[in-house]
Amino acid sequence: MSASETAMQRDRAVTIFEKGAPGRRAFQPPPLDVPERPLDELVPARLRRKQPARLPEVSEPELVRHYVRVSRRNFDLDSGFYPLGSCTMKHNPRLHERVAGLAGHARLHPLQDPARAQGALALMWNLERALSEIAGLPYVSLQPSAGSHGELAGVLLTRAYHADHGEARRTVLTPDTAHGTNPATVSMAGYEVVKVGTNAAGGVDIDDLRAKADRDVACLMLTNPNTLGLFDPNIEEIAQIVHDVGATVYYDGANLNAVMGISRPGDMGFDIVHFNLHKSFTQPHGGGGPGSGPIAVSARIEPYLPRPVIVRRGGGESNGSARELDLDYDRPKSIGRLRGFQGNYGCFVRAYAYICSLGASGLRDASETAVLNANYLLARLRELGVCELLPPAYDRVCMHEFALTGAPMRSQLGIRTLDLAKRLLDYGYHPPTVYFPLLVEEALLIEPTETETKETLDGFAEAVAEILREAREDPEIARGAPYSTPVRRLDEAGAAKRPVLRQAL
Amino acid sequence: MSRYTAVTDDDRRAMLATIGVASVDELFAEIPEAVRRTEPLELPEGLGEAEVYAHLRGLAARNTSVEDEISFLGAGMYDHYVPAVIDMLMGRSEFLTPYTPYQPEISQGGLQVMFEYQTAICELTGMDVSNASYYEGPSALAAAAYLAKLTNGRGALVISRGVHPHARETLRTLAEGYGMKVVEIPLVDGVTDPAAWASAIDDGVSAVFVSQPNFLGAVEDLEALIGPARAHQALVVCSADPLALGIIEAPGVLGVDVCVGEGQTLGNRLDFGGPSFGFFAVRAEHMRRLPGRVAGETVDVDGRRGFVLTLQTREQHIRREKATSNICTAQALNALAGVVYLSWLGRRGLVELGELLLQRTAYAREALAGIDGVTPLHSQPVVREFAVSLGLPDLASVRRVIARCAAEQVNPGYALGLDYPEHADGLLVAVTEQRSRADIDMLADVLGRALVSERAAAAAQGREAT
After folding, report:
1. Which fold has domain A111-354?
2. Chain centre to alpha carbon of residue B297
3. How many angstroms separate the Cα of A371 from the Cα of each of A82, A204, A477, B15?
4. Contact B311, B288 (CB under 8 A)
C-alpha cells in the first residue's frame, strides 16, 4: 500500500528557534519605577553574562500558532482509545483543572505560614486519610513526585528500618515480571537485585522465593496484580515468607486501578505501598508528567517517613491565628526529604477531587469496570479469532489488563508485535504497551481502563482482527505501517548513534 | 456507574455473557477471600461536580495566596507572572492528556517540545546537553550526585551551605542510600567560604555542589570555586536560578560539569510547591550518564524530519538495575511551560526582566536597610533576593514580626532562622517583577512599624530586644 503524502506530512517540522525575527517579542516588561543604578554597581561585570542566551524572538500570535500546530502532531487521550498497558490512561475530568487553578491553590506559596495555608493542609490531610483507607495502611506521605520516587522512598525506608534495628542487609528481591523502575530503584538505594522467577500460572515462583529469602534480603518489591495483569492468589504466603526472614514487602501501586475498594495491599500483608496519582487518580499524564507518588506504610515504618509530616495540633499560635494543622519537621528517625517543599500539591488537588466525586462506591465501580472491560476485550479478541495468533501469555481471568504474546503471529504471518502496533496507528488507536513484560515473547500489554464504552472496545477488537486479516494477505502492509501519521517510522538507531539533542543555532 | 464510567446494566449483561461468567464478582474469584473486601471503604459517598467544586473552593478560600497579600516570600519558589498563553497551551488536550511518547509517529508534538526545551535549557545554562526534565530542583541536584558516583566512584560529596536547605537535605537522604559522605561548607559574608571549600576538596571527593545565586541571594564567585574541584578531578555541580541567568554568567561557560535547578520560575505556578520541573544539563562527556528522558532529532523512512526518545540504553526500562536513574515519569507538561515561557520572554526579554529585578531588588535592599535596627546580612551582589538582619534576639521574635506584617496584608519574606540557626534574626526578601516600587515602599513602612511594635512589646514584657 502506498499513500500519497497527507497535509500534516507535507507540513515539515519547524522549531520555535527557526521562527521569528530579531526584535520581535511577546513580553512587555513592567516600567522601571525605581531610580536606575549602573549595572556595574549592582553586579560586577566579571560575574555578569557576556553572551546572551539565544532564545527565540517571536510575537505572541506566532508563539500561539507554533505551539498549537505542534500540539496537533500528538495523539491524546481526549481524542481516542489509549490502551497503554500499565499506564492506566483513564479520563481526566476537567473539573480537576478548574479547581486546581483556583488562586487559593494555584497561587499559594509553599512556605506560606501553615496558619495561613490551613485549606491546603486540610486537603492534604483528607487525601492522606483517603489513601490510607484505600491502601489499608495507617500512615501516608504525599511527598514523592512519581511512582519511581515513591519506590525509592520505600526502599530507603526499608534501609532506615533495618539500620534502626541494627541490621545491614544487602539484597532486594524483584520478580522477573517487575517494572524496570524496581531494579533501578534497588541500585540507587544501594542494594543488589536478586530476581525471583515466575511460575506456570504467571505468579511468583514460591519455591524460588523460599530458596532466595534469607536474612540478607531487605525487601521484596511486588506488583499485584502483576505486570501480566494477573492477581497472585498466593499473596498471603508470599508476604509470610518474606516477613519470616525479617524483610519488608513493598507494593508497586502501578496496578492499583484493578483493586480499589476490592482488596487492600495492607490486608495482603504489604508494609509499604506507592500510589500513582497520575494513573489510578486521574492526574493528567502531561506527555510524561507531572506525576505524584505518595506512599502508605505500616506502623513499624512510620517513624522513618520523609519529613515534614502533616500533624493535627490543638490550640492556636501566639500570633492568634488558628494552626490546627501543621507541618512537623521534628522527626529524628526520618529518612529526610526526597525533594523540596511538600510534594506535587497540584496533583493532590486533582486526586482529592476525584476521590470526592467517586466516593467509596464509585472507586469500587471504577475498578470493577476496569476489570470487566479488560476481560470483555480479551473475550472479544478471542471471539474474533485474534487469540489464535495472539494468545494470552497466561490463560486465566485477568484483572485490569492482559498480556498477549505475538509469537504465533510472528511465525505464521511474518509480522511482529511492533508492526501490529504501528498499523493500529493508521486505525486511529494508540497501541498497547509492546515488548513488556520482558518474559513474554512479542508481548502486547492491553489496559483498556474503566473509561471506555463497550462500543469502543468492540471497535478496537475489530481493528486488530482486520489488521491480522490484512497481514495474512499481505504482511508488507503492516511492516511498512504507519502511513497516515505526521511522520512515518523513524530512524531510532541513527538517532542514538549520532545524537542530535539540541538545535544548532 | 459513575459519571466517569459508561457500562449500563444491558452492557454488563452482554459483556459478562461474552466473557462467559455470571457476575462481575466472579472476575475477582482469584483474590483469596481473606483479602477480598465485602465491606465498602470508609470514605464519604461521591458528590456531584458542583458540590465537589464548592468543597474545593472552600478549601482554597482558607489559604492566603499571593493574590491576597503583597508577598515578598521566595526562598526557592517565586511569584513571577505566568502569561495567559501558558494556561491555554497547558490546557490543550494534545499536551495535557497523552503519556510519555513511546510511539513517536503519533507523539511528534511532545517530542518536538522536548527538543526545543532541551535547546532552550542548553542556551540558558551554557551546557552541551539537557534532559527533557527532572522532578524538581532539589531532587535534580541529588540526582547529579548519582551521576558523579557512576562517573568516578568516589565516596564523598562537598556542598556549600549556600545551596537550598531542601536540596542539601535531599542530597543527604539519597547519598545515604548508596553510602556516600556529605560534607557541608559554611558561608562567610553570605558566600561559600573559599578557604574551607578548598581545604575540604581532595581526591576522595566525587562532586562538589554550589548554588548560583545562593539561598541568601548572594551571587557566588563560581569561577573561583571551580578551581579547587578541577585540581582534584571532582565533578562540579551548580544549581542555578534560571531567570538570574539573563544577568549572571552561564555556569556552562565557566566549565561546570552539571547544571541543575528549579524550573518553577519559568512559567510555572506556585501550586504550594509543585508540580514544577527540575532541569538537568551536562557537558557532552556526561551525556550517556544523564538521568531521564532525552529527545533527539532524526528522519523517518521518507526522509522527513522527526524526533524520538533517544539514548534509551541509559534508562530503567532497558537497563534495569544498571540504569543511570530509576526515573520514568518526569515533568513534561511543566517543561512545556518552561520553553513556552522562555520563548514568550525571548532573547531580549530575559535580559530586560533580569535588569528590572536587579534594580527593584537593589531599591528594596536599600529601603529596608534604612529601617532602624535592620542591616544587610551580607554585602554580596544580589539579583532578586536579599537577606537582612532584623536586629531581634531570636527566631520567635522574627516570626512575630512576620505575623504583624501579615495582619496588614504584607508578607515580608522568609525567616532564615528556620534553616540557619547562625542567622536567627535573618529575613530573606524576594522581589519579583510583580512587586512595584509602591509595594516595596509599603513593605518598608509595614516592616518598620512591626519592628517598633515588637521592640515595644518586648520591652513591656521585659524581654531583651536589641
Report:
1. Aspartate Aminotransferase; domain 2 (3.40.640)
2. 28
3. 16, 21, 33, 11
4. yes
> What is the predicted pLDDT for the residue at A2?
46
- The residues in B 290-349 lying below 8 A from A, measured between CB atoms, are 293-302, 304-308, 310-313, 315-323, 325-334, 336, 339-340, 342-349
Instruction: Tell me how many degrees the CA angle B291-B294-B296 measures, rounded to the nearest 5.
Output: 150
Q: Do the beta carbons of residue A249 and residue A242 sit within 8 Å?
A: yes
Q: What is the CATH class of A360-492? A: alpha beta
Cβ contact B132:B294 at 8 Å: yes
pLDDT of A315 above 90? no
Q: What percent of chain B clears pLDDT 90, i.e. is strictly above it?
A: 96
CA B71/CA A108 separation, integer angstroms: 11
- Residue ranges of A 16-55 with Cβ closer than 8 A to chain B: 16-17, 24-27, 29-30, 32-37, 39, 42-44, 47-55
Would you tell me which residues 144-203 of chain B have a C-beta closer than 8 angstroms to some C-beta of chain A? Answer: 146, 164, 166-167, 169-170, 172-174, 176-179
CA distance A154 to A137: 14
pLDDT at A267 over 60: yes
- Percent of chain A at pLDDT > 90 equals 97
Residue A250 has, within 13 A of its CA and on its CB side, a CA count of 31
- All structural domains of chain B, each given as residue ranges with its CATH number in brackets, are 9-52 (no CATH), 70-75+352-460 (3.90.1150.10), 84-341 (3.40.640.10)
Residues 6+ apart with CB under 8 A from A465: A381, A384, A385, A386
The verdict on ipTM greater than 0.95 is: yes
Interatomic CA distance for residues B325 and A320, integer angstroms:
47
pLDDT(B227) > 50: yes
Residue that has been written with the C-alpha cell 521585659 in this structure = B462
In chain A, residues 203-232 whose CB comes closer than 8 Å to chain B: 230-231
Is the Cβ pair B433, A425 closer than 8 Å?
Answer: no
Chain B contact for A187, CB < 8 A?
A: yes
Q: So what's the pLDDT on residue A322?
A: 59
Q: Is A258 helix (H, G, I), strand (E, B) or coil?
A: helix
The C-alpha atoms of residue B256 and residue B125 are separated, in whole angstroms, by 10
- 3-state SS string for A459-470: HHHHHHHHHHHH
Q: How far is residue A296 from each of residues A144, A270, A301, B145, B204, measured CA to CA in Å?
A: 11, 10, 9, 27, 38
Interval B23-72: pLDDT, tens = 999 999 999 999 999 999 999 999 999 999 999 999 999 999 999 999 99
Rg (CA), chain B: 26
Q: Which residue among B3, B35, B363 places its CB closest to the CB of A34?
A: B363
The domain segmentation of chain A, as residue ranges, is 7-71, 111-354, 360-492
Tell me if A269 sits within 8 A of A243, measured CB to CB: yes
The CA angle B301-B313-B129, to the nearest 5 degrees, is: 85
